[in-house]
Amino acid sequence: MRFSKAFLPTLKETPSDAVIPSHALMTRAGMVRQLAAGVYSELPFGWRAMQKAIAIVRQEMNAIGAQELFLPVLNPLEVWEETGRARDFGDEMFRLKDRKGRAMCLAPTHEEIICDLARSFVRSYRDLPQMWYQIQTKMRDEPRPRSGILRARQFIMKDSYSLDADQDGLNKRYDLHALAYRRIFDRCELKYFEVGASSGLMGGTGSQEFMVESPHGEDRVALCNACTYAANLEVAESRTASIHDPENPDPSGQPEEVSTPDKRTIEEVSGFLNIAPERLIKTLVFMTGPEQSAPVMILVAGDDEINESKLLAVLGGAFRPAHPEEIKSSFGVEVGFLGPVNAPKMRVIADPRLQGGRNRITGANKNHYHITGVDVERHFHVDQWADLRTAKEGEICIQCGSVLRVANAIEIGHIFKLGTKYSSAMGANVLDAEGREHPIVMGSYGIGIGRIVACAIESSHDASGIIWPAPLAPYDVMLIALNVREPEIARQAEALYADLQGKGFEVLFDDREVSPGVKFNDADLLGLPWQVVISPKSLAKGGVEIKQRAIGQRSVIPMTDLENTLRGLRG
RNA sequence: CGGGGCGUAGCGCAGCCUGGUAGCGCAUCUGCUUUGGGAGCAGAGGGUCGCUGGUUCAAAUCCAGUCGCCCCGACCA
């Protein structure tokens, strides 16, 4: 491609609404253009990078035997009502009506459509296994699109689905996907890691995320400094130093009320009574059940934060924090003075960190009072022990005993063992060898194509611009002709342009009549792996000048060595 | 959904407080000169100041509403 003819609008200045490096650079390099919040046009330079990522994904998906198909984005809402996800997705699903008034939606993902195909065409265990994938535009009305294309409302995703007769089959298909994903991200030269994850809205029995560490990532992950343990903070476990309880002055006594006027938060009470926060018992009340009308009491140590993902898994269904009025009517007390002792009867779930606690402090269920000397299980009953706390930086790895750190990361892939959630809801069944009907056992697997590209830039750039990993680079070589009005330069540059292309290199040829500075700056901004400069100076030295973008060093080499040098650099 | 900020030329911004001819830099177009890190000179084009309404002799500027965009949080395959 000739730069003089290309639709490649580079920008000298960073648009004011680009906050993170990948967004700023993608905009400045003429890769994308925002049309609305979370909606982007992919311009030619950016689209080429996307196509590189797509080609890699496609090859590796085909390599594990998956078959590509293409599903509709425009869906009748009915299909989504069968599984209840029309409701679960809520406002995140774009909805519309067709001219006849039929309720339609724009697909945020495609499990339902896959299930619909499966129930129509898959009858027997002999038809299984199947792996189907597509590279498709997804629509989600995100409450807050942000970070450029990292969190968009319209984005391209590779999504695949496996259909199996049993759990063993699912495990195999899941492992195949994990393998393919590792190959894909390796080939894209991303420094990724895998974490155990929550399956959230998707349901199912297990899931892993593929993450790239980045300060601009929206996910938080716990990583072990020594071993391979890594988990999304939503599910991460950790060990903590045990809580030191001073002897209870009266081991068989009852808790004692202390006045704590206007001290509501852990911090206030801890400061006021001069007692370590971990010895306070934090009491929260959530409403759960089908009507969200059943209260449940959650107890954790005062210095811990409730982990809502873990709580969701334990409660097994939707929940919400109780309203202050609900608490007032059942406990007769303000939030802030709640406690498990002499509380109204309700299900009590406590974090194991409280187990065996002695002489602890908690709310008195009386405004402006707390109680001290509380012994766990002697003074109140616990129905269920469950890990409900959020792991923190510096805590102990459950695998190896080393120290955990917490980092931000960008999710580039996610694989799920769905099980039969969708197939049973939609009646996608197969007959087994004995002629009995079973729901198909499904898996679902996603990769964010745009995130691959954005992550590559996010983790490989400098002050001048992008530094492409070669496999994702929109072109292999930036050929720069300086002083193109000089006939000899023009002639040699044209010849080189044709020659390199003939040898299979993808070349962006800067043939513009602009000053050298403009060309060098654009070349660094666009970040192609190699820059080849042809100029009076280089010709005088008997060749062309070559610069590897990542390293920055220039050297002049004979024209005849160019091909070998470029191939050598390719690695 | 809560909090904050911003909408003025393609991009980056000033002007608004204190109402009175819409500006600057970059980019664009023409001509000449220029070619190793975002060139020089001369000339030119480009704006319903997000939108609607109000106040006023007069509104980019003041008031109200509305739409859009960004950020923090909540939320989130």
- The CATH architecture of the largest domain comes to 2-Layer Sandwich
| General form | globular
Low-pLDDT parts are none
Fraction of residues in H or I helices? 25-40%
Identify the CATH homologous superfamily of the largest domain.
Bira Bifunctional Protein, Domain 2
Largest sheet: 9 strands, mixed
Structural domain tally: 3
Number of helices: 15
**Average pLDDT over all residues:** 92
> What percentage of amino acids are in beta strands?
25-35%
Gyration radius over CA: 30 Å
Quote the CATH topology of the largest domain.
BirA Bifunctional Protein, domain 2
* Broad structural category: alpha+beta
Number of strands: 31
Structural account:
Helices cover 27% and strands 29% of the residues. It is of the alpha+beta class and 571 residues long. The protein has 3 domains: 51-212 and 411-457, BirA Bifunctional Protein, domain 2; 256-385, YbaK/aminoacyl-tRNA synthetase-associated domain (YbaK protein, Alpha-Beta Complex), CATH 3.90.960; 475-570, Anticodon-binding domain (Rossmann fold, 3-Layer(aba) Sandwich). Helix 1 packs across helix 11 (449-458), helix 2 packs across helix 6 and helix 2 packs across helix 11 (449-458). It is globular and about 100 Å long. It binds one RNA strand of 77 nucleotides through residues 9, 11-19, 34, 36-37, 92, 108-109, 138, 140, 142-144, 146, 151, 157, 159, 197-202, 207, 209, 218, 411, 414, 416, 444, 446, 482-486, 513-522, 524, 533, 535-537, 545.
